[in-house]
Amino acid sequence: MGLSTRIIEILKQTVGGTVDVSGWVRTRRDSGSFSFLEVNDGSCLANLQVVVDERLANYESEVKKLTTGCSLRIQGQLVASPAKGQAVEVQADSIMVIGWADPETYPLQKKRHSFEFLRSIAHLRPRTNALGAVARVRSTLSFAIHRFFHEQGFMQVHTPVITTSDCEGAGEMFTVTALEPGQLQGANPFSGDFFGSRAGLTVSGQLQAEIFALSHSRVYTFGPTFRAENSNTSRHLAEFWMLEPEMAFCDLAGDMQVAEALIKHLVAVALTDCAADLELFDQFIAKGLIEKLIQVRDRPFVPLTYTEAVSLLEKSGRSFEFPVQWGIDLQAEHERYLCEEVAKAPVIVTNYPAAIKPFYMRLDEGGRTVAAMDILVAGIGELVGGSQREERYDVLAARMAAAGLEPEQYGWYLDLRRYGSVPHAGFGLGFERLVQFVTGMQNIRDVIPFPRTPGSAPC
Fold it and tell me: Domain span at residue 219?
């Protein structure tokens, strides 16, 4: 039986009964004729104290040799605990050692380890309090995403991991090939490849999601995406998860409403279902985290046009690393200033210059800006990026030509505008950034189980 919060609550109601639990030893403390074990199975932050009497048959031969990391099966009586900070404890009737952990080589001891060190042991770091809590929050948020969209009438679509379409047009796709380097020759080097043309790992499922939005109205895709960007910062990963809903018969205003409602819902779920884990983060990782999340849940987001945002930045008197002027893409320092110091709340920036946004975003009247929106949050910057999609065939074809895209490669995308086109909109939410925001973790590599970055792909 696991030690989840729900199970512990059930156990409290059956004090005096027999329990059978398994987990890993966090610590062992000996006192007189007893040993006190702190055991955890990862299902919640709390440990379960196990009191072991020296009269157990294997007390001297095994119990007294237990160290951090050993795995156990414990049978005993659940009793009210006289110790502070815990309602119940187990008085062991039997202890079975399932697996030993050599204390000379086991790297996780009872002390605080740096996150940098823990990244070097990705196979063991989930056993720590902080990374274990991240995993639980991540799982809770993932489930909450599916529940939110199910309740809102969205259908999930599994978009491909391998694609021939570069959604962002930035040329940062990982190429997928079955050919040897010496075979990639000639004017069309991929013609003899597995797929008959150049293919890569997807940077976004958006374009494929649009196909189903224009047949099923409200859909979403949620899965791994990949970007071959040689960046070794605390904000970038080569493999990351993206949530991308698409809605037919929807404009930019509707897109913003769904995105704001989603974020508020996810934050509310985390505050309710991950309370103990968030208290850990609030105490040791990011002071004031819970209050920040409560404000996000309860306060409306602040809308600003891109032009208004640039004006506020120019008048701020701040000396930014990246100078501000109309027409540039906002940097993280600009985004954080807007939401942390100007609005003191999440900000939705809309109507960006067309020149800095992808071809699929709908041109505003006048053609200078597009119907785009980004949601900015404290500590992270951009959490959500979305837009109303360009539904007009002629306008989209012209923008694709200007972007240098091959018409035959994207003929299917243009077909969606030829046959029953409708206004539609969507957005992308970087899941790791969401987990960072909710936990207060500073490095994105610490909120994904197995980070992939330039030069590093552990496990």
Answer: 125-446
